[in-house]
Amino acid sequence: MSDHHSTVPACIDDEDTRAQQILEIINAIQARLNSVDVHASADWKEFTKAFKTSLCKLGKERQFHVGASNVPSEDRNYGEWLYDVTWLDYDDKHLLNVPLVAEIEWGNWSAIRDDFEKLLLARADVRLMIFSEERDRNIETIVDRMVDQILRFCGELVWGEDSWLIGALEWEDESERGWRLRWFTTTTVPSTLKGIEV
């Protein structure tokens, strides 16, 4: 029987290639979303649409099939597909890979957790969670809860290194825009699982 920890999907040449592709996606997402204009007067619906549209455009630029709702039709291939934003990699007939699934949620921990838990079920290269906690804005506590949930869900039965990217939208008084995204990343490798600010 094959060792699932070292099995590489047929659509990826080798582990180094996959790791490089994932790193490129993570860097591109951070750069693109950091440039989104999230000024102080914007509301949550505007934030959501801006982030989703930006993610969809990036996925289309990378030649993926993109699913999302409430974004311009030219920036997606179809409506929402399981997650707020999904990138799918197809050949002519087959789904080969899921480079990205993303959820966006503003509110209290309970609401954030509901959307975050959906990402636990995904087989995707990058699982992206963007959030803001409406009351205590204790970003590190929320991230710690997410990482703890990843570990409890995965346990030792990890299928490769699935990468997580967490973007926390927080208020920044000194910023001209008022808000900023604070980034954390982790992978589903139990021995190294922790939220690292990037």
Model description:
The chain is an alpha/beta fold and 198 residues long. It contains four helices and seven strands; from the N terminus they run ααβββαβαβββ. The protein has helices spanning 15-34, 44-61, 109-120, 139-154, and strands spanning 65-68, 85-90, 95-107, 126-133, 163-171, 179-187, 196-197. Strands 1-2-3-4-5-6-7 form a seven-stranded mixed β-sheet, sandwiched between helices. A hairpin with an 8-residue loop joins strand 6 and strand 7. 30% of the residues are buried.
| Average pLDDT taken over every residue | 81
The helix/strand order is HHEEEHEHEEE
What's the number of extended β-strand segments? 7
Roughly how many Å is the radius of gyration? Answer: 17 Å
- Provide a count of the helices: 4
In short:
Helices cover 33% and strands 26% of the residues.
Task: Tag the structure with descriptive keywords.
alpha/beta, 198 residues, globular, 7-stranded mixed β-sheet, 4 helices
Ordered list of secondary-structure elements with their pairings:
Elements: H1 15-34, H2 44-61, E1 65-68, E2 85-90, E3 95-107, H3 109-120, E4 126-133, H4 139-154, E5 163-171, E6 179-187, E7 196-197
Parallel strand pairs: 3-4, 4-5
Antiparallel strand pairs: 1-2, 2-3, 5-6, 6-7
Helix pairs in contact: 1-2, 3-4
